[in-house]
Design goal:
CATH topology of the largest domain: DHBP synthase
Strand order of the largest sheet: 7-1-2-6-3-5-4-8-9
Number of domains: 2
Helix content: 25-40%
Structural class: alpha/beta
Number of strands: 13
Mean pLDDT: 96
Shape: globular
Number of helices: 11
Largest sheet: 9 strands, mixed
CATH class of the largest domain: Alpha Beta
Order of helices and strands: HEEHEHHEHEHEHEEEHEHEEHEH
Low-confidence stretches: none
Length: about 325
């Protein structure tokens, strides 16, 4: 349980330019004062994050948007009314005072109002924006529990607010509203169908002119153990083939194990998209710590409900030689 004293201590740490990890409904974020360049540099150093990679400013309410954006289009108000607080990030034209460290040097700023009670308490008590990328080393699996943060960042974090496991389990949907039409930069907890129902049309796909956004590099959300995504009808054969070559293999599937060779550890995860997303990062962390040579993940369905999970698995499996 997070107490009012915990929140007060976290606020004091943030105001001193230090780092606080806290839960959101998506994943745990590593928080720093969004107006303090030194604090943000400390955050980037803790994560090993490139300085040109933008971060999301977390706000207590949508009323703060004009403080951070030079223009708030009607679509931003519409989406905020529909989905905030919640797992949606809006990319808007930046206000002149917003630090380049926040925007990655771009003319846009990413804003979000999280729904987790602890995040809301912290933001309200702090009274200003907090940048909070996921509380892990850059490019690695996002944390969905406080112990994930401790294991990965250790003493680099001055305080961790433990709010239990997160509800959504994958990062927020990011929609760019800085141009003429809404653009989906990253799928997440709000689906394209939900966005279309509010906007009147689906958001466009990103192009070369779209701004950079958190979590959109080809390789991201990755365990250290090499991971392959395998189509369901090939999963058993691929696992047996790798085990026959002497590799120890962990399989993550949505169905019970068939007869397989020794050297294969078959793990079952839910066939429900929302439950799967909630459990995914914790399960991959467990397999990553298991000493396996390879992780094989059964490909998930090609439907709107699974879009965010497909995106995360594709990035987790990416390797430069491809």
């Amino acid at each position: 349980m997070i107490s009012t004293d915990d929140i007060a201590q976290a606020v004091a740490i943030l105001r001193a330019g230090r780092l606080v990890a806290f839960p959101t409904e998506t994943v745990y974020g590593l928080g720093a004062d969004a107006r303090n360049a030194g604090a943000i540099r400390r955050l980037f150093a803790a994560k090993g994050r490139p300085a040109d990679h933008p971060v999301i400013v977390h706000l207590a309410s949508a009323d703060a948007m004009p403080e951070w954006a030079s223009r708030v289009p009607a679509a931003a108000v519409t989406l905020a009314d529909a989905f905030w607080p919640g797992p949606l990030t809006l990319v808007l034209p930046r206000a002149v005072h917003v630090l380049d460290l926040v925007t990655g040097g771009q003319e846009t700023v990413a804003l979000r109002v999280p729904s987790h009670p602890a995040a809301h308490q912290l933001l309200k008590a702090f009274g200003d924006g907090i940048v909070a990328p996921s509380a892990n080393r850059f490019g690695r699996l996002s944390p969905t529990r406080a112990d994930h943060v401790r294991a990965e960042l250790g003493d680099a974090v001055d305080m961790i607010l433990d709010g239990g496991p997160t509800d959504v389990g994958v990062e927020s949907t990011i929609v760019d509203l800085s141009g003429d039409y809404p653009v989906l930069l990253r799928p997440g907890g709000i689906s394209p169908a939900q966005l279309a129902a509010v906007l009147g049309a689906p958001p466009d796909a990103p192009n070369a002119a779209s701004p950079r956004a958190s979590g959109t590099l080809p390789s991201h959300y990755a365990p250290r153990t090499p991971l392959d995504v395998i189509e369901p009808d090939r999963l058993e054969a691929c696992a047996n083939q790798r085990a026959a070559s002497g590799l120890s293999v962990a399989v993550l599937a949505r169905r019970n194990a068939p007869p397989v060779r020794s050297g294969i550890a078959w793990h079952v995860i839910s066939a429900d998209a929302a439950v799967y997303a909630r459990a995914l990062y914790a399960m991959l962390r467990e397999l990553d710590a298991g000493g396996y040579d390879r992780i094989l993940v059964e490909a998930v369905p090609d439907s709107d409900a699974w879009l965010a999970v497909r995106d995360r698995l594709r990035r987790a499996a990416y390797r430069e030689e491809e």
